[in-house]
Design goal:
This protein has 814 residues and is α/β, with parallel strands linked by helices. Helix content is 52%, strand content 14%. The protein has 25 helices and 20 strands. Strand 7 (195-201), helix 7 (208-218) and strand 8 (222-223) form a beta-alpha-beta unit. Helix 9 (311-319) packs across helix 10, helix 10 (332-358) runs parallel beside helix 12 and helix 14 (468-483) runs antiparallel to helix 15.
Length: 814
């Protein structure tokens, strides 16, 4: 085992040994009856360490009826004699409670199962039925301490009486290891509800660390397996009066530089409460606090610094990282046990230093010896190793260490008997101390490995949710280390291997759960992306449908019903065939178009009827027919036709170039437009490629009216000429086109009407400007026609028609 790994396990070893000594009652120390006592140790570096023991110096109030939740461990570790001992302790505890107390019994393993539906009297039939359920319940699985304590606190949340939790079991939470953060949160919750936790450790291996921390931080009591009458002791401890200090009403002396735990532990009448830390000055010191509305004051003078109090250095050093959260301090007994644990650790470090020196590892021998002296400045073995390393005489007595702050050397205490720790005044080591120390060393190494395994299990439990692969790797390395450790008893090795293998199985399940969770997350993401795409497509379709219906309404307002039906409504039906709105729009456009066509024809019919009647009335007006109409012969008409063709065959004065002729032909060619929110420039490029002609945009003219080349165009046209398509498309944008400079130019109507853009054309008007006499002929012809029509009206009217012919001839002559 490496030196760094040994030192990292020192605190775990300290807690394990200290609480183990307490649980077995090895010290046999009685609680202090002093209201306050301050033990002190002055280190050679000038720092002063203290341990302060406090008891309420007031008359405690009478014990009131309590509401208790009893958590009985029913995991697989509680079988055989352990189950029998636990059941006996539970029954005798219930017998020691008063009828006014209320109890709720719960079985704790992987879950917290209520055995009594509510709080009942200890001797009631309901409690007897709950005990029967408990006795019938098979001990299976592992324990989840966090879930059990949380469930108990939840059941006590609405209680108005003094509250407490009684736990009977080994204290291990193998179903779910409790992380330091969870432990702190759980304890804060219990303290916030003023719930004290009293426990009775029963089992092959008791988690004294957790039970001691719960008892010390919540004002409870941790009883060990060697307690002779655990039932009455549990009842008395559970019903004990607890004073809860107010965190903002605790005043420590200014000379107290550090105090641990930082949250002041509750006070009890049947045991003292302990805090440790560092201080300056010689005192006396005054401590004030308010607990349950009562003002408490202690005045205490520190005792002299004793080398036997050097263990306080280690306790304060280990309390700093977490503020004393993991300190298993529940009274003076725990301090005495911690003293023994530190002395044992120092002794073992000295022994390891001696062994390292024997094999020539001087570097580690020196580090181990210095570590032993840091823990216990009076450790003889470590001093001898250092003397030998410095070349001194190891047979001579090592020099006495200087006292605190350079004071004269103090008498060194005798070596500590590690098996039966001596009282403060005993001197001299017992016979066979070395053999016992070696055996104790092996036991302590086994305890360190066990503690290291528990630490690995806690770390792995914290990693399983986020990094199960790392947890598996750490557990496998720890499993291999346990299998190769020769110091372990086979029974302990098997137990540790079982715990690690159970944790590995749990980690494997977490890996599978993580993979399944990842698969589900990917599936959810895929579904979300698919839903998003469907939503976007639906949104685009709805937007397109809305645009089409807006265009439909515009066309209907303009009276262009056929286009609204055949183009816009038809496209909307293709876009969403199941939507009734486009179908209804098509029917409305068709019906409305037919109606207005019918109204137009009807109006035209009415007008033509009246006009015809008017023409009939005018035909009744007579006109003379002299001179008569003389029509030229056919040869004259032929010559006139030929002469007109030769004279007016070229009517356009402008020269038409091939590119312009190509554009004119393309305008009469069919085209196809299918655009949705397409920029105008892209539409023009498409038409250029489709018809093979040059089309340009008049950018200056478009900018003047605020139309950009990126203006969106939405149009669906096919089967019509390019000329019609351009008129429809450009008409919506208030644009037009003209042919200029061999290109088809897209411009504004204002620019197209500029005189510079107009062309000169010649039209035939020969019928209006013929030679004199021709018009008379025409007029006579018209008069003759009038005479003919008059003749149809009657003989007399016919004569008048002849007169009309004459008038026409005269008019023609004029």
């Amino acid at each position: 085992m490496s030196l760094s790994r040994l030192f990292s396990r020192a605190w775990l070893l300290l807690a394990t040994v200290a609480l183990a000594v307490l649980a077995t009652g090895a010290l046999g120390a009685e609680p202090s009856n002093e209201a306050a006592r301050l033990d002190r140790y002055s280190h050679a570096d000038g720092a002063d360490y203290f341990a302060l023991s406090l008891k309420p110096a007031i008359e405690m109030p009478a014990t009131a009826p309590h509401d208790l939740v009893v958590l009985f461990d029913t995991s697989a570790s509680q079988t055989g004699p352990f189950r029998a001992t636990a059941m006996e302790a539970l029954k005798s505890m219930l017998a020691g409670l008063t009828p006014a107390d209320r109890v709720k019994l719960m079985a704790v393993d992987g879950n917290a199962i209520p055995l009594s539906e509510q709080f009942v009297a200890p001797g009631s039939p309901e409690m007897a039925a709950a005990l029967a359920k408990l006795e019938a319940r098979l001990p299976l699985g592992a324990t989840d301490m966090h879930k059990g304590l949380s469930a108990a606190a939840e059941n006590l949340a609405d209680s108005s009486n003094p509250k407490g939790i009684v736990y009977i079991g080994d204290g291990y939470s193998k179903a779910r290891l409790i992380t330091p953060d969870e432990s702190a949160s759980l304890i804060d919750s219990l303290v916030g509800q003023q719930v004290s936790v009293t426990s009775y450790g029963v089992g092959a291996d008791v988690n004294a660390q957790l039970l001691g921390v719960l008892a010390g931080r919540t004002g409870g009591v941790a009883l060990g397996g060697e307690t002779k009458t655990p039932g009455p002791a549990l009842a008395a401890a559970a019903r004990g009066t607890v004073l809860w200090p107010q965190a903002d009403a605790v005043v420590w002396p200014a000379e107290f530089k550090e105090v641990y735990p930082k949250q002041v532990p509750p006070l009890r009448a049947d045991r003292d409460s302990v805090v440790i830390g560092t201080l300056t000055g010689a005192g006396p010191f005054e401590v004030k606090m308010t607990a349950d509305g009562q003002a408490l004051t202690w005045t205490v003078a520190p005792g002299e610094s004793k080398p036997t109090n050097s263990y306080l250095t280690t306790l304060v050093e280990k309390a700093r990282p977490d503020g004393g959260l993991s300190l298993p301090l529940a009274g003076t007994e725990s301090l005495q046990a911690a003293n023994v644990a530190v002395a044992v650790a120092a002794y073992n470090a000295g022994e390891l230093a001696k062994q390292a020196l024997a094999v020539g590892d001087q570097q580690n021998a020196k580090k181990l010896a210095e570590e032993a002296l840091r823990r216990d400045p009076q450790d003889r073995q470590a001093k001898m190793v250092l003397v030998q390393l410095s070349g001194g005489d190891v047979t001579a007595a090592p020099p006495a260490a200087p006292g605190p702050n350079g004071a004269a050397p103090v008498d060194e205490p005798p070596a500590l008997n590690l098996v039966n720790p001596p009282a403060a005044g005993d001197i001299g080591p017992p016979p066979g101390a070395m053999a016992e120390a070696i055996a104790q060393q092996q036991r302590l190494i086994a305890q360190m490995i066990t503690a290291d395994v528990q630490n690995t299990l806690r770390e792995a439990s914290a990693q399983m949710a986020t990094s199960p692969d790392l947890a598996i790797q750490s557990l496998k390395m720890q499993l291999e280390s346990v299998r190769r450790a020769p110091e372990l008893d086979p029974r302990v090795r098997d137990q540790l291997v079982d715990q690690l293998q159970a944790a590995l199985r749990a980690a494997d399940r977490e890996v599978e759960i993580a993979a399944e969770r990842r698969r589900q997350q990917l599936e959810i993401l895929a579904q979300a992306r698919e839903t998003q795409m469907l939503t976007e497509n639906l949104l685009l379709r709805e937007q397109r449908l809305g645009q089409l219906m807006e265009r439909f309404n515009s066309l209907m307002e303009e009276g262009r019903y056929r286009i609204a039906e055949e183009m816009v409504a038809a496209e909307a039906q293709q876009l969403d065939p199941n939507n009734p709105v486009p179908i209804q729009a098509s029917l409305v456009a068709r019906t409305t178009g037919y109606y207005f066509d019918q109204m137009t024809v009807r109006a035209a019919r009415h007008k033509a009827f009246v006009d015809t009647l008017w023409e009939v009335e005018k035909s009744m007006v007579p006109f003379p027919d002299e001179p008569p109409i003389v029509y030229p012969d056919a040869e004259v008409w032929r010559q006139l036709t030929e002469r007109r063709k030769e004279r007016y065959s070229a009517m356009d004065l402008a020269v038409q170039r091939p590119a312009e002729k190509k554009i004119m032909d393309a305008l009469e060619a069919p085209t196809k437009l299918e655009f949705i929110d397409t920029p105008l420039s892209d539409v023009i490029e498409y038409l250029k490629d489709f018809h093979g002609i040059e089309i340009q945009l008049n950018g200056r003219a478009l900018d003047d009216v605020g139309i950009g080349t990126d203006t969106p165009v939405t149009r669906s046209l096919q089967g019509i000429t390019l000329r019609s398509a351009l008129r429809l498309m450009l008409g919506e944008l208030d644009l037009t086109y003209l042919i200029r400079d061999e290109v088809l130019l897209i411009t504004t109507p204002e620019d197209a009407q500029d005189p510079a853009n107009m062309l000169t054309r010649v039209y035939p008007v020969a019928d209006l400007v013929i030679q004199p006499g021709s018009m008379g002929m025409g007029g006579g012809m018209m008069g003759g026609m009038g005479g003919m029509m008059g003749g149809m009206g009657g003989g007399m009217m016919g004569g008048m028609g002849g007169m009309g012919g004459m008038g026409g001839g005269m008019l023609g002559g004029m």
